[in-house]
Every structure is written in structure tokens, then in C-alpha cells.
Amino acid sequence: MATTSTRLSTFVWQGKDGRGNKQKGEISGVSVALVRAQLRKQGIKSASVKRKAKPLFAPSRQKIKPMDIAVFTRQMATMLKAGIPLVQAFEIVADGLQNPTMRELVLSVRDEVAAGNNFADSIRKHPRHFDELFCNLVDAGEQSGSLETMLDRLATYKEKSEALKSKIRKAMNYPLAVIAIAIVVTGILLVKVVPQFAATFSSFGAELPLFTQYVMRISDFAIQWWLWILGAAGVFGWCFKEARVRSKKFSESLE
After folding, report:
1. CA-based max dimension of the chain
2. Which of 81, 129, 131 minimizes the C-alpha distance to 106?
3. Which of 29, 135, 188, 202 is surrounded by the most beta carbons within 10 Å?
4. Sign of torsion, CA 107 111 116 117?
5. How many Cβ atoms from other residues are within 10 Å of residue 238's Cβ?
6. Distance, CA of 247 to chain centre
7. Long-range contacts, stretch 210-217, CB < 8 angstroms, 24+ apart
8. Cβ–Cβ < 8 Å for 30, 9
């Protein structure tokens, strides 16, 4: 069953634990009501829960790359093999992460697990980073009692997959560079060189070959509409980038 992605926010809370001691901290969640429910499951009676204010000039969020998920999976497998409890393993992994967005994701999953959910259901709430195959295999590992083994296999699979994608991208760099240079050179020829030949040919007074006439027409079109052509190329590039970021299916089809 597909799960819709919900944007997490950071909340600041204050409350009392089971012994009546005052506690406060930060927690990731979707809404105030759900955060209060998470705190109740952890034995905290929350008196105040507020969404953490964002700074006026906040830096852009660092993206979570597939390799970040592979490293996270490998680290979790290592922690569980060492006999470290699941919730504590999340905390240790999160403390060692340099990417703040990835750290927020790991702590969010930790909060879900600490609230009583299993690992698979917790990561299903983040389908942008954990696909259905990943979630199903984690679920199978939990059901069979071999979660650390399944995570180890998942980490190996993701590492090999990302290594292969990296090789393909590097192999594509050269032909893409050649195509880009060819487009630039063709544009310069159409705008700068062909008009000079056109003036020379017109002085002969002879009828030009059909192919030469086509080239000159293309040159005239490029000279007249070059600004619109560049604008259209820029809009296409922006739309391509946005589609790759916003559409998971489009991004997966490219990869």
C-alpha cells in the first residue's frame, strides 16, 4: 500500500516526565497533535508544544542523496550486529552524520520507533528516500528476526547500485560534452559564418543548391530569433530540473 509523503517540522516542547521532573527538548513531527501523542508514548506529559521558528535568512536545506541512504543502512547493520538496541543505534548514527537533513530524517525514524512503531512502518512514511522494495525487505527482516542481516544485504545492494550509476554518469559525460560543444559551434557558424558566405554567393548571381538555401534559411531564423531560442532552452532546462526534483517517477526513469 502506497504511503503519501508528509513534510516534517521541528517542534520545541516542554513538559514533565512520570516522576514530575520538568523536561524540554526538540522533536520532529507533522503536527502539534501528533507530537503530543509521541511524547505521551514516551511518558512525557507535554505542557507546551510549539513549532520551532525558522531564521529569517535560513540556508538552503542540504539534499539527501541515495548514497547517504546506503551509508545509513550500512551503519545500522553494523550497529545491530554489535548488539546495540535499535533506538540507540539510530542515535549513534545520527550523531555521526554531517548532513543535517539526513540527521533530521534519522531522528524522525528513531522517534517513530521509540513511539512503538516498527522499523518498516517508520521508514514507509518517507517514500522519497526509502522505496517499497527497501521497506518490504526491512519488514521481512523484522518478521524473521534477522534485521541486521537484511540491512547488511540492502547496504551491499545500494552500494553496488550507486557505484554502477556513478560509472554510467561518468561514461555519459564525454558524449554529452561533445554534443554541447557541437551545438555551440553550430550556433556560431549559423550566426557568424553562414551570413558571410551568403553575401559572397549572392554576388555570383547563380542559383544556389537546395541544401545551401536551407542552411541559409536556418541561419536567418537563428539570427532573427536567437534570443527566444536561448530563452526556450533556459525554460526547458529549468523545467527538466524541477521535474527531476519533484517527480519521483521521472527521476527514477532517468536513473
Report:
1. 102
2. 129
3. 29
4. negative
5. 10
6. 10
7. 215/190
8. yes
Residue 25 has a pLDDT of 82
- CATH code for the part of the protein at 66-160: 1.20.81.30
Extract the C-alpha cell encoding 220: 536567418
| Encoded amino acid at 69, one letter | I
Candidates 99, 113, 148, 106; CA nearest to 129 is: 106
CA distance 167 to 162: 9
Q: Give residues with Cβ within 8 angstroms of 114, minimum separation 6.
A: 38, 41, 42, 87
- The DSSP output letter for 50 is E
In which band, very low, low, confident or very high, does the pLDDT at 213 lie, cut at 50, 70 and 90?
confident
Q: What are the two backbone dihedrals, phi and then psi, of residue 142, each rounded to the nearest 5 degrees?
A: -70, -45
pLDDT tier, 5 (very low <50, low <70, confident <90, very high otherwise): very low
Beta-sheet pairing, 9-16 with 45-51: antiparallel
CA distance 148 to 145: 9
Name the grid cell of 215: 542552411
What's the pTM? Answer: 0.57
Task: Check: CB of residue 77 under 8 Å from CB of residue 38.
Answer: no
Distance in angstroms (rounded) separating the CA atoms of residues 29 and 37 = 10
Residues sharing a CB contact under 8 Å with residue 141, sequence separation 6 or more, in sequence order: 147, 148, 149, 150, 151
Cα angle: 243, vertex 232, 239; to 5 degrees: 5
